[in-house]
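Dear colleague,

Following up on Tuesday's group meeting, I ran the structure prediction for the two-component complex that the binding team flagged. I've pasted the input sequences exactly as they went in, so you can double-check that nothing got truncated or mislabelled along the way. The structure tokens for the whole assembly follow below. Feel free to forward this to whoever is handling the docking comparison.

Inputs:
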Amino acid sequence: MTNTTKSSGKSYKKEMPILWWTRRTSHIIFVMRELTSLGVAYFAIILLLLIGAISQGEESYYEFIKLMKSPILIWLSIISLLGLIFHSVTWFNLAPKAMVVKFGKYRIPGIVIMLSNYAGWIVISIIVGRFLLY
Amino acid sequence: MADKITLEVFRYRPDDNSEPSFQKYMIPLQRDWVILDALNYIKDHIDGTLSYRWSCRMGICGSCGMMVNEKPVLTCAAFLENLIPGPVRIEPLENFPVVRDLVIDMRDFLEKLKRVKPWIIREQEDPAIEEYKQTPDQLADFKQYSMCINCMLCYSACPVYGLEPEFTGPAVIALAQRYNMDNRDHGNSARMDALSDESGMWQCTFIGDCSKVCPKKVDPAGAIQRYKVHGANTWWKNLLLPWAKDK
């Protein structure tokens, strides 16, 4: 029995199926969160096109606004916005895992870190909202 | 209640038959049995050719991890009673090459563990100091990460490791953090390269299943995210204050 630790060299490795992420709820949520990056890209492109339209003058700006009011683009915007809200909420809920803040011996509870992230989000949204509306 | 339960056990014997298959075993259903007891019953009374790893039977050696109904668990802690009526499907830990039946090849994990230098590194040893003292608070900073038993359930739960086998992986990064956060250690920068290269912590997409399956509540997902924050801070510090030295 001298060769007991020596393997025959052969081993079996199962390949990950292409739909591996459908097997668990946590994986479906994860893939959904990754897909929200398409929403970010969508809004970034819209913003660039908007700036481009403004630089062309008033007429092209109003033409762009008219284009954006088409039902397909409104639906795309709604879906992207929902995706980004989903991304932000899941992200803020995870924040306490990454952020451990200590004052001396005292560790700030996770819920405080999570809520302060939400508070920052709301404050920035109000400031940006005011710029947009006035 | 039925007094028997069926186990569908993954079999792979490279010597006589290279295709893996499932073999069914009908065993007595004992309420106080865990999966490992059931496997030992099969080995002792039904089929002596079944291969699997186990040692302590009490959740500390970390060698009996397997997939039970597609979830990575320590089989010494998974009660048959909770899997009634069956059949119960038992497979080797996912994402690892299978050597035989339920035995996986763990060399990849051990190699990765070595790369992050999981021991206390001192800049210099002072023989005059007999002990390096630590307060309970300093211990509490990393104690959670020191509970890891190298059972590799987190690697089985991690789709990133399944898709990108180069990924350093959850337990190894958590164990690197165990030493990085130890006040007696000076090895932070010595471990940084292995942890922050393209196979390191940035591969992690924070799915979080590693922490869910961990039998010791180590929370490797949390450890990796904290290390990402540390890595990003170090990068900025090196850029803005190149003369400041990291631990």
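DSSP finds four helices and two strands in chain A.

Cheers,
M.
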